Amino acid sequence: RLCPFTPVNGRMSVPGSSLSPHWPPHLDVPRDRLTLDVMMQREEHLLQAVQTLQQKNKELHQALSAYHEKELAFVQQVDLHMEKVEQTERQLLDKVSNLERQNEELREAKGPLA
């Protein structure tokens, strides 16, 4: 395999890049201490790590979307429940008002107690 890195002043560099001759920082060692095989293994390991992280990121986004949908459904359910509670409250207040009115009418019709 061809190595995309070339030595510059005894250190590794990426040809045609705007990166410094000491890029990447963890490769800033003399060329004789960092062999092509080690570099290729490290690159393969890093690419696998990137793929793993991308997959995990995708799974987390899917889980987040699912939780968001559940949250929206829950909020709709709570809103519906609160509407029913408010409707029941209005009905009960109307009943109380009617009962108070009827009670007052009965008291007036019976007259004062002696």
Explain what the structure shows:
The chain has one helix at 36-110; strands spanning 6-8, 11-13. It has 114 residues and is mainly α. Strands 1-2 form a two-stranded antiparallel ribbon. β1 (6-8) and β2 (11-13) form a beta hairpin. The termini are far apart.
- The average pLDDT is 81
Biggest β-sheet: strands ordered side by side in the sheet:
1-2
Q: Given the C-alpha coordinates, what overall shape results?
A: rod-shaped
Q: DSSP helix count?
A: 1
Question: What is the fold's blueprint, element by element?
Answer:
Elements: E1 6-8, E2 11-13, H1 36-110
Antiparallel strand pairs: 1-2
Give a nutshell description of this structure.
This protein has one helix spanning 36-110, and strands spanning 6-8, 11-13.
